[in-house]
Specification:
Blueprint: H1 2-8, E1 14-17, H2 23-26, H3 32-39, E2 43-46, E3 57-60, E4 75-80, H4 95-102, H5 122-145, E5 150-154, H6 155-162, H7 165-171, E6 185-189, E7 192-196, H8 203-210, H9 223-228, H10 230-241, H11 246-255, E8 261-262, H12 266-270, H13 273-278, E9 281-283, E10 292-294
Parallel strand pairs: 1-2, 3-4, 4-5
Antiparallel strand pairs: 6-7, 7-8, 9-10
Helix pairs in contact: 1-5, 4-6, 5-6
Length: 310
């Protein structure tokens, strides 16, 4: 993901293989769409040795020992599973382990059931973006001093950084637990699911927006009572929302400052009017007919960077 960002911004990125086979062999275990998404802007170099003098940034995959024969000006980026140093450096890791050890996994899912992991490769992508940020700082430093740096992060460090809510709760004397009834719940609107969330002080605004005396009853009079009668509250809100579209409910709640919003699936995102207006979903270069991907989420002078033509 880090290399993809570099390539999309115009860098010449090459996948180096020391006689270990072709890209097809490397990605044999990858889904075709994943390889098309991550590698479409990269070329491939197969050679017995790597000439570091011709390289600005060396990205290592974290599966082996760091390179030792480096030039002073070379910038090196590395992502490991559990960190490159310390007692866990040699342990096997991955998305699931990093989610579990960071505490993130403990917060997802029903409290009466096993935890649920985040789907896809969210920690790997987030770690790639963190590494990309570090490399941009290192490039700036080298431009001023001529000296390169080593930039390193891990899936575990990234997961611990992302999972900030649990630490905030602990610092304020609370305990955030999986399935906490004070958190958001998903209601149903006429055209799909809606993430319904409100703070205790928002309750009068929620009642006003939904406009029903079914919420103005003793069992929902206080936040403690609403938590105690959570299942009934969810049922009533679902029934009140079922004839309203997600966008209608979103705008009405936003107008009174209630932090709630639609829950979108992949189809919704692909055909989002907002993303369409921003030109955010773009074709995958060289991909299958109709294949699309998110573009770089940044603009310069209102223009999204364009990859130079090959």
């Amino acid at each position: 993901m880090c290399a993809k960002y570099l390539a999309e911004l115009g860098a010449e990125v090459s996948l180096y293989r020391s006689g270990r086979g072709s890209a097809e062999q490397r990605t044999a275990d990858w889904p075709v769409h994943l390889s098309a998404y991550l590698d479409n802007a990269k070329s491939e170099t197969v050679a017995e040795t790597l000439d570091l003098a011709e390289i600005d940034i060396l990205l290592e995959d974290g599966s082996g020992a760091p390179s030792s024969d480096r030039l002073p000006s070379l910038i090196v980026g590395r992502v490991t599973d559990l960190g490159g140093h310390g007692p866990q450096a040699g342990w096997q890791g991955g998305e699931l382990i990093a989610q579990a050890e960071s505490g993130l996994l403990a917060l997802i899912g029903d409290s009466k059931k096993a935890p649920l992991s985040l789907g896809g490769h969210q920690l790997a992508y987030s770690a790639g973006l963190a590494l990309f940020t570090g490399l941009m700082i290192a490039l700036r430093h080298r431009a001023a001093t001529g000296v390169g740096q080593q930039v390193e992060t891990s899936l575990l460090e990234t997961a611990a950084y992302i999972e900030w809510k649990g630490r905030v709760y602990i610092q304020t004397g609370g305990d955030l637990a999986r399935g906490d009834l004070s958190g958001p719940f998903v209601s149903r609107c006429s055209d799909g699911p809606f993430g319904f969330y409100y703070r205790p002080t928002d309750w009068p605004a929620v009642v006003a927006v939904l406009g029903s005396d079914r919420l103005d009853v003793p069992q929902f009079a206080t936040h403690a009572l609403r938590l105690r009668n959570h299942d009934e509250l969810c049922r009533v809100i679902n029934e009140l929302c079922e004839s309203t579209t997600r966008d209608e409910l979103y705008h009405r709640l936003q107008a009174v400052g209630v932090p709630a919003g639609p829950v979108y699936d992949a189809h919704d995102l692909l055909y989002s009017e907002q993303y369409g207006e921003r030109g955010f979903i773009v074709p995958v270069p060289g991909g299958e007919t109709g294949a699309r991907q998110p573009a770089l989420p940044v603009r310069f002078n209102d223009q999204r960077p364009q990859r130079p033509a090959a």
